[in-house]
Each structure stands twice: as C-alpha cells, then as structure tokens.
C-alpha cells in the first residue's frame, strides 16, 4: 500500500510542464496499474474541486484521494513551498477557503504567510507538509517552529524530503518526514510510483492516518488486531519462564544480544506449531552447503529413460540375450522320407499320409496390431478423463459424447482381440495336432515323416526379428536426453544460479570421468553391452551372428542389464549464465536462504539469515521476499542481529531478549508506537528505535535509509 502526498494534476504556473495535465480517465488508468492507495492532489496555488471530484469518483474503489494545495509561503523574507492537505470530509469548505485567498491572484506571483495559512485552514483538520532541506524552495527550522507553534497539534507538521534517503535521515533524527512524487510527467508515473513510501499498516481513512502520526497506541492496536494473530504459549527455557507471545501472519522479529536464547525460542515455536498439525523446522544459516542440498554428488539419485520418452526395450533386450539359431531342414530328411518303402500292410491302406502346417505368424501379427491400437485408444480415453484443462477448453457435452464413442470403439476392439486370439490359438493348436498326426503316421508306415517345412521362413523370420530388436535397442541408446535445469537461487548482480543435471545413455563411445552411473552398475559392462549391440547389428545376416550374441551373453555383469535405464550415466553441476560455476560459502548461504524463503509454506522460522551475506543482497533480494510473504499472510519469524531485516521490514511484532544484571527479560512491541514492553514483569518500557539502533548491526544506517517505508 503506497502513499503519494504530493501530486500535480494541472499545469498552473508558467514554469509547470504541460505533461502535468491529466484527465480523469487517464488518471484512473494509471493509478489502477500502480500500488498507490492514498494520493493527495496538491496543485500550485490552485484547487479545482470539479476535477477533484471527477478524479476521486473514478478511482474511489481503489484509491483514497485527499484534497490539497501547494502554497507559496512568504516568511522572514524567504519564499518556500508548503503543502496543505485537508480532511476529505471538509473538501467543500477547503475549496471555499482556497477560492477566498486566491481570488484575483496570479498563481505565478501569489504568496501567503504561515500565520494566514493557519488562520484559513487549521479548522479543516489539516496536515502540513513543508519542503525541507534539499527539497527546495524550503522552509527552515525557524519557520517550521512558527508553524508548529500556531497549530493545535505539532505532529501534523511533516517535513518533505527530496528522496527516500533524505527522509530516512530526517526520521533517524526524530523528525516526521515523508516524500512524494511531485510528478512532472504522467507518462512516467507508473515507474516512479514503485519508489514511493509504503504504508506498513493499512490506513482506511484520513483520520486514521492522523492518529498514526500521533503514534496513538489504541489506533495502532486496533489496526494490528485486524491482522490474524496466534496466541502462543511456550517454555523454551523451562517451566520457570513461560512465554505468552503474539505471532502474526506477518513479519515477527526476534532480536537481542548474542547468547540471549533467540535460537531456543525459534526451536520452541517450531515444536509448538508441529504439535498442532503444521510441519516446520528452523532454518539455520551456514548449517548446510548448497552442494549437499542439491545433492551434487548424486547420492541416491535415480532416473529412468522412460521419464524422458525413451523406450526401455525390456522385451527386446531379453530376446537378444536368449536368442538362438533356427535350423533349416536338411535335404537328408527329405531323402530319408522319399527313399523309404512301406512294409507295413496297415500303412499301405492309409489314405492321408502327410498334412502340412499352417502359417501362424500372420495371425500373431494381427493380434499384436489390434492389441496396440486398443492400448492407444485406452490411453487417449484416460487422457481425456485425467486432464482438467480439457474440461476448461471443451464443452462438457462434447467430451461426454467423445468418451461415449471411445467406449464403443474399445468394446469393438476387445471383440476383435478375442476373435483374433481365438484364431491365433486355433492355428497353434491345429499345428500341434498336425505334428502329432505326422508322428503317428511315421510310426505306422515305418517311414520317417516328411518335414513340415523347409525352415527357410522361420530362419528368415528369426534373423529379421533379431534385426528389428537390435535396431530398436540401437535407436534407444543413441537417443539424446535434454539436460534438466533446476532453479537454485539468485546471486544478485551475478545472475541466477541453476543446478544442471546431464544424462547420457552409454552408446559404446561415451567416455567422461565426471559422469557416474545412475543404477548400481559399473561403467565397463555398460560400455561392453553397447559395443556388443553395435557388433550384433553389423552381423545380423552373417554366419558370425550367434558368435556375437554369445559374446554379449558372456559380458561380466550382463545379468544386471535388463533395460536401457541400466545404461544411464549422469553428471550434476551448477551453472551461472550458461557457464560452470562453483558457489562460495557466502553464495551458498545466499542460495539456500533464497530457496527457503521461496518455498510455499505457511510458517517460516529463520535463524540469523544475515550470516555470510552482504547488506546489498539482504536489502535488495531478501527483504523484498520477506515483505512479499507478509503480504500473502504467511507467518515469518526471524531471529536476527541485522538492522536491514529487523528495521527495514517494519515488523508487526518485535520480540527483544534483554540480558541485564544477570537476568533475562522478554519484551515485545513494534515500531509503530515505538515501545517495547516486558511480558512477564513490570520492568520499565524501552524505546524500540533506540534499542534497535543500539543492539542491531547497521542500526543507524538502516534508520537512515528507512524513508522508503512510512512507519516512523
């Protein structure tokens, strides 16, 4: 939720740019593309109530528009600018006062004193925002003292800085400070708005904003109570120190000197949430290295080629390993049959003495083909049923109609399979009967039975089947598998780091010492197997074929190679911008913290995330992620010594562990009403900002750059 207290919607003075002019429609379009939720219109020496109402109405569902004016102040012979912003409820009266003081005046030369300004506007519930220091033309401390003395509540005087750094410096010195866009060109507003102040607490109205300026504790607590909060009771240091803590679905910070038990509190909170059904653990910085987290050595790594669309060739490999030669019928068997004489009187009376076998191969092929088609239709039906996107893209009636058609097709194919199976089985049974019949005839006649075939067809089919299987295996082992790149983390300016897993199927020529086998198989039998497959493929139609198959069978460890996955090798490395990269220990911390925070969890428990990390990385990468988690309603609980995290995130809850005179105290509070209160004793309250600056590393600089977040 961003706020912009200094916006121009009109070219009023001669020196104003035309690009300050904006229509209500264009304003509406721009504001809806930003996160700005409160905006004050403050044109130079001019207030247009009609434009105000038109603009306010156009964005009333997304943004509060406050009426204001940027006045030229003449005080102590000095000319300066002062923004006067009124309660929107008083806009009509505000318009009348503006018309009164500006009647007949030239906006280029108009000026008014501080006293006259207060006299005209103070009763309209206003806040006063003065250009200060490097925001020129500015009011000095003397003039601001005059203004503060004249109004009923000096906290309504805010100093406008030129940028977030200046605002932060003013805040660190105890001033109320903020900054606005002072927009020159509305074409730039969407980009400029990204750097505007964030309102850490949601502000529903002008009145509520003013109460926050007063650091009104009741108002702050009312806002905090709207946030989901767990009342947690833990005893991290034993029954003698029971802690009752408020843990918000937002940012909760644990801080204090080293050795005050912050880690114990985190572990106790983890145990508490685990006991009520969550799964949590405390992230400990530097506890592990990124190499181990991403399993760079590949311990227990597993993958199958089928995951990448490669056939496992289980049946084919088994067939080759068990393949034998099919004999051709010798001419001697024909000679024995035809040269024999029938001596048996019974056999001379036999009418049928020879029956030929019927070819079974055609029926078997037809059965396989119908079975394959059936499986493809089944897979298509499962795809339609399981894929939710199909339901989003295609009308339900059409899908139901298609599924009905598929079911009828499947039923028809099942009938055809049954018929084909019956035919194939019948032929097989018939041929078995023929063989028995021929054997009996041979016994009766005393003549060797006539060979049922030459064997040439079976011989050729066997060789062709070997070739088909070898070709399929060869195709598989020569298939390239695309590398897998898993996002590891952000290394800031260096770029994004990825964990790259490369997979290779041993094809007989692959040699790389950096690769390890995926399965529990040595590299040597993998390579021997692949080379033997290649050799077999070259000798399919030679007399040496079964010598090569015998060589395959005698490979040491061949029994462990059952599929193509058994030939897999892998290598895992980190890459940055496409190049091999070895993260340092500090970079390992960056990556693992980033990984922890980007995981989708309900509760994040993090111990000292700043270890080994630079301030820029914490501020530019980690803090924005923490804020994003808070916006999503996650519980973020961080123990830290770093002000970048403890201060710049403006936590809803700060838990401070104090060690004093040998005793330990737990104090809670927040930056909004700037107090820390002891939860178990009546110890005096502490100043949140003072303690933060004193205790946290980089506390002063963090407060000095805190203007990006309005929460002082």
UniProtKB/TrEMBL annotation:
<dbReference type="InterPro" id="IPR027417">
    <property type="entry name" value="P-loop_NTPase"/>
</dbReference>
<protein>
    <submittedName>
        <fullName>Uncharacterized protein</fullName>
    </submittedName>
</protein>
<dbReference type="InterPro" id="IPR016195">
    <property type="entry name" value="Pol/histidinol_Pase-like"/>
</dbReference>
